[in-house]
Amino acid sequence: MTETLVQGLIHALRGSMGKEAIVFIISMIPIVELRGALLVAGPILGVPVAEAIPLSIIGNIVPVPFILLLITPIFAWMKGTKKLKPLVEKLETRAMSKKDQIEKYEFWGLVLFVGIPLPGTGAWTGSLIAALLGIRFKKAFPAIMLGICMATVIMWFVSYVLLGGVHLLG
Questions:
Q1: Could you list the residue ranges that cross the membrane (predicted)?
Q2: Which whole-number Å values give the CA distances from 163 to 10, 84, 151, 153, in the listed order?
Q3: Dihedrals φ, ψ of 16, to 5°?
Q4: CA distance 159 to 43
Q5: pTM summary value
Q6: Helix, strand, coil shares of the chain as percentages rounded to 5?
Q7: Distance (Å, rounded) from C-alpha 58 to C-alpha 79?
Q8: Concatenated DSSP letters of 63-116
C-alpha cells in the first residue's frame, strides 16, 4: 500500500513540480516519512544526497510540533462526534499498542522508536504516542529530532550506498 501511495504521488506531482519538492512532500506523509523520501530521492528521482537529506529532515520535522502540541485537544474534540469517535479510538489503540518501549525508556525509547526504520515506527507515530502518554514537549521534541537524525543516517546508507551505487571510499 505504501509503495502504491508513493508511486501515485510521484506520478501525480512529477510534471507539476521539481523532484526536490516531491522528496519534501513525501517526507511529511505519515508512514512513509523520511524513510520513504530518501528511498525515492536517491534510487528513483536521482536527487543528490546533499539536497535530499535536508529536504527529508525538514519535511519530517514539520508535522512533529503540531502533533505534540495539538493532537490531544483535536482528538478530544473528534471523540465528541459520533462519526469521528471510532476513527480516533482506532488510531489511539494502534499507537498505544506500540508504547511499551517508549514508556519504559521514555527519552531513549522515543529516540529508538523514531530512529530505527521498522514498519509502524517513525516521527508521526512517535509524536502521537508521546502526546498520548503526556510526555512534555521539551523532552519529546529533542528525542524525536535525535531519532530523525538516526533514521537519516540509516536510510542514507540504504538509499545512497546500498541501492544508489555510491561507494563509501570513492
A1: 21-45, 57-77, 107-135, 141-163
A2: 19, 41, 16, 14
A3: -105, -10
A4: 7
A5: 0.86
A6: 75, 0, 25
A7: 31
A8: HHHHHHHHHHHHHHHHHTSTTTHHHHHHHHHHHHTT-HHHHHHTHHHHHHHHHS
Return the residue matching grid coordinates 536527487.
47
Of residues 36, 44, 1, the one with CA closest to residue 123: 36
**Cell 480516533 appears where?**
88
CB contact at 8 A, 107 and 144: no
Positive or negative, the CA dihedral 3, 142, 147, 89 is negative
CA dist 38 and 81 (Å) reads 38
**Among 143, 134, 116, residue whose Cα is nearest residue 61:** 143
All cell numbers assigned to 98: 506500540
Closest CA to 148 of 28, 43, 6: 28
Q: pLDDT category, 1, cuts 50, 70, 90?
A: low
Average pLDDT over residues 63-72: 97
In the prediction, which pLDDT does 3 show? 63
Q: How many Å apart are CA 30 and CA 48, to the nearest integer? A: 23
